[in-house]
Fold these 3 entries.
Entry 1:
Amino acid sequence: MKNEMTGDDYPVEIVSLTKYYGNVTGIRDINFGVGRREIFGLIGPDGAGKTTLLRILATLILPDSGKALVEGLDAVRDFRKVRRIIGYMPGSFSLYGDLTVKENLNFFAAVFNTTIDENYHLISPIYSHIERFAGRRAADLSGGMKQKLALSCALVHHPRLLFLDEPNTGVDAVSRNQLWEMLFELRDSGITIIVSTPYMDEAQKCDRVALMQEGAIMTIDSPESIVDRYPGSLYQVRTSRMASLSEDLEALDDSASAHRFGDSVHFSIRDDKDILERTRRHLCDRNHSDIEIERIKPSIEDSFIKLMTGEAAQGE
Amino acid sequence: MKILIEVIKKEFLHIIRDPRTLIIILGIPVAQILLFGYVITNEIKDAGIAIYDKSGDHVTARLTGKILSSGYFHLVRNISSVEEIDQSFQSGNIREVVVFGEEFAEKLGRGEAAPVQIITDASEPNTARLMENYTLGIINSFSRELYPGSAVRQPVSVPVRMLFNPELKSVFMFVPGVMALLLTLISAMITSLSITREKEQGTMEMLLVSPFRPFHLILGKVLPYVIISLINAVVIIILANTVFGLPVRGNLVLLLAECLLFVTTALSMGIFISTITGSQLVAMMISMVGLMMPTMLLSGFIYPIRNMPRILQLVTNIIPARWFIVIIKSVMIKGTGFGAVMAESAVLAGMTLLFLGFSVLNFNQRLQ
């Protein structure tokens, strides 16, 4: 990893970054680099350390050890310079609820010594959606509109990097897609983006993702490679007795794992040519009927669960 | 500079968007000054007395009339025996008994001294002392009326003059004190809440990731409230002047300038509080409860500083209100110029710079 991180091509470089909150691990020994014009996703459940990582990059908290470099600037020592070149959108709504949309945007533009007009072209794809509410107080906006305003405020000074902490939490589906369209545009205009999300389906939209769990990174790769590297085969199974299906499938052999996914169970097992037949027989023995088994392509979520259970098994 | 102006503009927007808070901030001083004005008074008005007149002649009748027509006393009952004196005090509504000796008019006619005894309820010592003085005053002026030449017989005559407040009105004492107290508490409270509010709302997180400097935020939050606090000061002065008749003898511009200085000190103290606390609740506790007692007890508002133990006298030096009370009394009541309060003003200015400086140094540029 380290030898990759020489040269200028990594606007963000993180080296063995560690942060504790008292005895609780925030993040431990995180290493990665983010390339220029890349959307880098931090994917993981609550408590995985996504916010901690982003806050260190945004110079808001100090790491206990390790280094975070933003465009070659140390996020601890050169925090003032870093603050000039990044845009940051915190996880919770962080604008002035008693000020109007326009006043919020004006204020953040002015604090960065710029004006809305100067960078209007940059924010217009997203700001145009809320411009007609310019006179409304920010507190009275809906979740999607708040998100758009927060993003506009984070972008109004034309940052070189953009850090977004769960921008789509509590936001409607249409607004989510609009946000992603906007992020693609920003990336193509040359802005490096790090975005965290707990939603696995959003991971697919990133150029590369880091799957995080309990403060550590389990794997970093493009979503396609992560899926391609899925060990074994994945099947979607439905039977008459869904309640005990997961348990019964896992009893098949020790490489088997099964998880409920909506109205079916995703069943993962090492490759084997007569596996379908064996599974069918095994389920029949356990009084399942109407058995449907279909081989499917794993999703990021399947990979995540596989990695997660793998780590847990290693831990034991 | 541009950032500072923007922060000030934003603060003004916060203020006008929240008219309820503004009304409270501007309304508290009016309510408080009126309350203090009518409640804290150490003058005697209409105190209940009893008269034990052993002679019952025309002189004692005239003297009784004088006492009762003064406005300070009203007669609850006439008594006719020594036992009744104790009973009168125990009944609770009588705080003084005046006893005229026997053969009052005859003794005066013979050129002898006619005895009057004043018995007061000293379970409230200050009131007892005041009532005694008021009664003596009435009796003395009565005897001078009867015998205009009698002053000659007094070997030492003591003409007393009370300067600046000849009637010893209590407003002269409480207005400067209440003004200092209210301005300290309200000013410190509004600024102590303002930075902690940004922390609680999460707006600090967004604000920190920008090129602003701590002094932008700190000055930007103090300056708008200077105007509001100054309005408070002016309202208090107007009320003191019109409702309670406190004169403004000194230069009005100087008085306002000193008020401006003092509210800036108090606002800076508040901003300092908000840099050391994380929540609005804690900030409020410190700025209200934490400042109230020291300001009331150690500023010289209620208890004279020179009567305190040496160590406490030293402690009073760090209370901003202590200096402001001296300034206000000098400028408003004595009518002195700036020269007389220069030292006190310098102390306040120094405190302001210290609070602002510490706030800038202490301002956390990160979330932790």
Entry 2:
Amino acid sequence: MLDQTDRAILNRVQDDLPLTSHPYAAVAEELGLSEAELLTRLTRMKEDRVITRFGPFFDAAAMGGAFCLCAMAVPAESFETVLTKVNAHPEVAHNYERTHRLNMWFVLATETPEGIKGTADAIEQETGIKVLCFPKLQEFFIGFRVAA
Amino acid sequence: MIDATDRQIIRALQGGLPLTPTPYAQVAYDLGLLESDLLERLAALKTRGVIRRIAAAPNHYKLGMTSNGMTVWDVEDASITKLGAKIGALPFVTHCYQRPRALPDWPYNLFAMVHGTDRTEVEEKRAEIAAILGDACRAKDILYSTRILKKTGLRLKQKG
């Protein structure tokens, strides 16, 4: 279970950390904690998977690559087989099962814009299922914060 | 574009930043760089938008936000920029994008992610969005996530 201190930490570390030699010491001071306590709690929350990832968030597009949301309508009986094939691609950065005929939604992150089509085509060939691609046309909000 | 050293840095950090008192010194040592050079390069990558931020990705399920709904809307193209900005500014919307429709399978062009402690809360928030969109919205749906199937983030290949 998370206590109030854990929650305060989570609310702070979803925002950017300072780029300094001792980033955790700086955040600990803001929160009135010792650096050691902050690191212990962050390590525990990462081990417990309360924090799924901790570190830099990269923008593939700014590196000359691309991101694309994709969806497939996967029959229930072959879901696990298709999932294994889709997830085997390192370009698949996230994948969620959702309540819809289009029941598998994943994000491709590739190093070149052409990589999106190449990966989507490969997945279609391997699975025999159409991959719909939904590249972003406009972004209306870039933050991602959950109040802990 | 990124050079070979930037690439090594990204590869070293894509799995995450070490949870140790001097994480950059540790990563710099592993890469054979000076800590100051690494920090300088990271600052440059941030300025260029290659790094958006250095932060935690929380597991919202474990935070009690067990209901995660991707709300989708078919909004008149003429109004989408104005309305999208309004929806994106709502405090409970964590991601908001205009995306192409995929007719006939998919008529929706506005995607807004909404999280809540249960589906009732998500539905209340969805109704707020519907009220803002009003008549400019012709069709809508919501897709709840039922399982995280993968969550690794960007992975650069060994060579590129």
Entry 3:
Amino acid sequence: MEFKRLSVLPGVHINVLPTAKFKTIRIKLFWRWPLAEESVTKTALLPMVMKRGCAPWPTNRDIAIRLESLYGAGFGMDVTKIGETQNIEFDLEVADDSYIGSTERRVDLLKQGLEFLHAVTMQPLLPQGAFREEYVTGEKAILRRKIEALINDKPRYALTRLLENMCRHEPFSLYRYGRVADLDAITPERLGAHYYRLIEQAVMEFYIVGGVEPERAVSLVADLWRLPKREPLSFPAAGRQPAGETRLVREEQDVKQAVLAIGLRQATTYTSDDYPALLVQNGILGGYPHSKLFINVREKHSMAYFAYSRLDTTKGLQFLLAGIDAARFQEALDLITAQLEETKAGKISQEELEAAQKSITNDFLSSRDDAGQIIDADYLGQVNNKPRRIEETLVRVNQVTVEDVMRVAAGATLDTIYFLSDQSRKDGITK
Amino acid sequence: MKFETLENSLLKEKLLTLVSAAGLRLFVLPKPEYKKVYAALAVNYGSIDSQFITADGRQMTVPEGIAHFLEHKMFEKPEGDVFQLFAKNGASANAYTTYNLTNYLFSCTTGFRDNLEILLNMVQEPYFTDASVQKEQGIIEQELRMYEDDPGHRVFMNLMQALYHVNPVRVDIGGTVESIRRITKEGLYDCHRTFYHPVNMALMVVGDVEAVLVASQVEANLGKRGYRQQKAVERLTPEEPPEVHQAVVHDELVISRPRLLLGFKDRTDCQGRELLKRELATSLVWRMVLGRSSPLYNQLYEEGLLDDRFSARYSSAPTYAFSVLGGETEHPEKLAEAIRAGLERVAGEGLREEDFLRCRRALIGQFLEAFNSLEFIANSFVSHYFRGTSLFDYISIMEELSLDDLNKRYMEHVYPGTTAMSILWPKGRRHV
């Protein structure tokens, strides 16, 4: 299963995967833009305002009616951060025609779906170059709530704060939804100007997965998206920064459970030859319920309510997270770093190695059963400028040895320790 | 070993089914193009089954929440936690309990046979000790207390207690802190013996598997356990009056915005295909009247009375049926009034043909979309099976429905309706 890829205009690419596996056609459109202070909030707000209305369907209700008419097509949008890029995603799912022919005459849902996507993205309500005032005001309030809601999810909040501190000299420290402080300065005109900039300069990637003929899908897109002059930006590889001296950052909040978040810089990244071994190292250390962190920190020592590790392979970062009792900070920190040291020292049983390999295999193969995950995995490869085939990665994952894991682990350096706890529980902290 | 085949031409799916010698109902839906295999072993035993007559004729009343408690305990064996066993085998496993059933499941891309063996053994080999029951009481008590602080859960449970006088749906699936304390090792064994018999269970496997191999593995595993024939369990449901228990219930919690839920109590006088037909008709009605494309929803949205997390849904089973709608709002009482006024207006005008056709089309499309998910297929299928309906009838029943059916349903259930209202206020802001 591989995408057919074609570039139709400068910086506009179409990726099609024909398959009879699904009962729907999944269409995703990504707009890639640099992650930068001056644009992060505008880029996050833009698709929210765009989905409020477009020329053919100017209100929420018009759009809802249109989507229902397309056999309950699912439509959403979001913003993601991959390395130093900020990506707007438009996501549309329509039924495959062959399943709905019985009630009424055949409908061309691929074509109608693409026309809808074109209307929302290319025919916005922009008289005189400004978005509708009430839509901008309304969506600004929603975006503000979305950014502020981060604080409700403590592990996610802790991870975000760790990143802000750890990458404070890099754009990667920015939150994908932007900053509340930027909102006031965003006017309907400025947002309109930002839209035009993206139309001209963003890299656009179309993905279409389902029962489609690639040639037809490409020609439908090419006929609809007739963009005038395009000067797409080029995107450098994700920035790499060596770990500095280890810093401890503490924050106090009224929380019942403290969160310890540890950030590591990994020498291995998505583009490295050792990428499969990095996945295995993470699987052994903290990716699964059979990993060292879960077994030792949670099960054996009952020290944490949760304990796991996560990778950002594009940036080469690894995060170790645990929900702990604030009084046991030092003990938890020692125990968690000891698990990392074990992967460095090769204290890894054959059973641990195989369990990690099996779980990674299960995750990767399972992702092939979901069109959205198939698309996201390929897009990650495009942003990193290194397409990877899952089948090849898995062959390599299953060849990884304890020595490979040790080599990868040796490239991991402790960078920042972030600790979120209740102010009344100051004990247990030693610098 | 002979499979019966059920074909669905609209979904282009083929389902194989048989009953094993010990009485277990097996369903296999081959999906050769999928990498993953998903298996669900479901027990027709949920939180509402708290009064029943056992196989040997004893009438029993068990503590509320025991089905959920039992689900937790089934993962614990003398040799350790079965979760770990699945994980080491590359599978990801889970379980859940609803009002009606307990479902144990896993998915994997390799080693299906081994994982199925783990699942079958786990569910059929209870192992409880006084110490482990006591430990679990502590864990579940924490879980229940956590739910008490969850606004969505609290406002819903308050509504169920307002809608129902005695029906067990008014009690949390997990039970209460008090009822959990009454659970004993012996009680768990009793419930396991009564309900975890193959005649009361179903196994559904979806994915790239050979149905014959699954069936022979099931026969071998169950065959060695010496099950004796058992009659279906007789469940006792207390007589529920048609009217609501309480029209309005207020409560408060530390939250940022108030929450409103409106409940509509429905009658319970149909089963099988008719039950599903009523369920689909009601879902369609709610979508037409308060869905994203309805004038009423958009009017309330523009007036700032609701946001896009507002929802309306219908749940039904042979012993209960209700609709719940609502969400977060600054003005819960005003919103309730505006909804009632809107529903009255629709009652006067009648539902519109155009909305009916469009919304029905949308529901059919969304059903197809859900059929991409092996999890959805298996979980919904077993749930329908226990309730005496078939997931495969969804599209054909949808196509049978007429605007008359919906208008009739509207006047019968929605307006004026048998309703109750639950409001959860931010602490200290009640009745402003």
